[in-house]
Amino acid sequence: MASPKLFKLTQDDKDHYNELIEKINPNLKYDILSKVGPKLLKMLDSKKINILQAELVKDINFLVEVLENNPTISVLTTKRILFAFSYFFNENDEIPDIIPDFGYLDDATVVHWIVEKVKKELDDFPRS
């Protein structure tokens, strides 16, 4: 199993991804969401899920719940979540998903980076 410590996001990576996040069209929310389920099913069909993939599924689930249960989240938060999903279902990202044990390492790292940002934003969100 791949260790998440093998793939780290540099500041240059984060800057690049933040530029891509700005370009996400939040009106494509349901189009993007419609691709997450099939990608999860494809990953789960392998019948052998490692701890990294399990954490990735947990993070994706968290982001889906935030997106669906918090209609007043900011546009930026929505764009971040949609970027995480887009990165996840792109099979030709930094590390191609078909590489055994390592293919989802970058996905897990990028998605978890977004999860941490979203959690902080939710903590800072004023409650009524």
Gap between N and C termini, in Å?
44 Å
Return Rg in Å.
14 Å
Proportion in helices: 55-70%
**How many domain units?**
1
Structural class: mainly alpha
Query: Can you summarize the main beta sheet?
Result: none
What does this structure look like?
The protein is mostly helical. It has one domain (28-124). It is built from 5 helices and no strands. It has helices at residues 11-23, 29-44, 51-69, 75-89, 105-124. The chain is globular. The protein starts with 10 loop residues before the first helix and ends with a helix.
Blueprint of the fold:
Layout: H1 11-23, H2 29-44, H3 51-69, H4 75-89, H5 105-124
Helix pairs in contact: 1-4, 2-4, 3-4, 3-5, 4-5
